[in-house]
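#structure-requests
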Amino acid sequence: MKRVLSGLVLIPIVLGIVQYGSPLLFVALVTTAVLVGWFEYVRLIGHMGTRINPVIGGILCLLLVYCFYRNDFYLIWLAACLISLFITWYASGSALEDAVNQVAYSFLGIVYVSGLMSYFILLRGMEHGNHILFYLFMVIWSGDTAAYFIGKTIGKTPLAPRISPGKTLEGSAAGLVGSVAGGVAAQLLFFETLPLNHCLIVALLCGTMGQIGDLAESLFKRRAGVKDSGSLIPGHGGVLDRLDSLMFAGPAFYIYHAMFL
């Protein structure tokens, strides 16, 4: 019931902002998700035994969002980020043995959270950007739903038992079928400008990348020894728990679009 109620409240808000919100309002939505996701990531890494600076990392996350908003300054950000992280470690007085872990985990987290989520800003700014995001939502949500129910019903063969014991090959295959079905439905309902052949390819690609994103976040949680990345969304866990698949699917769509469309 918590999952249902949370969805009934949050999904219309997100869809409304995607469809009707100004570019700055959408950037504000992405920025909020980035900051919450960053602090969830800091918590996960803390459970692994490595302490990273949440404030400096949060500032670097915001700067990366700004780079995506302007679609510029990426190389400047890269240099400033690495220099800042090394200076932060040096100023913290932490042991020499912790230096590589602190810098590496910080950089990974900033790119993982802010870098991947910020692709939604680029997608929203494209022609038919709102339709692109709705298409991705349908691909990922249809795939997740099919994978969950088929995996629970007939799933027997583990997909990645060391990372996520509950996931099965049967569920994964059903998820890909569900993603393609969701993509076709989106193309027929509101995205006719996307040719059907590309629609099928992109749906399969994004469905696959979504499952990889899910496993990637499960890897963090498994290593940290926690069930959810956070508890912000009742019944759903944290922001990373809800966006892990979309965080990989969004860049996949953008790259495919840049190369073939």
